[in-house]
Amino acid sequence: MYAVIKTGGKQYRVQAGDLLVVEKLDGEPGAEVAFGEVLMLGEGEAVTVGAPLVEGAVVTGALLETRKGEKVKIFKKIRRQGYRRTRGHRQTESVIRVTSVAGGGKETKWDGAIDLTPKVILNARARGLGDAAVPATIPTAPVKAEAAPAPKKKAAPKKAAAETAPEAEA
Question: Where is this region: Disordered (predicted)?
Answer without folding.
Answer: 141-170
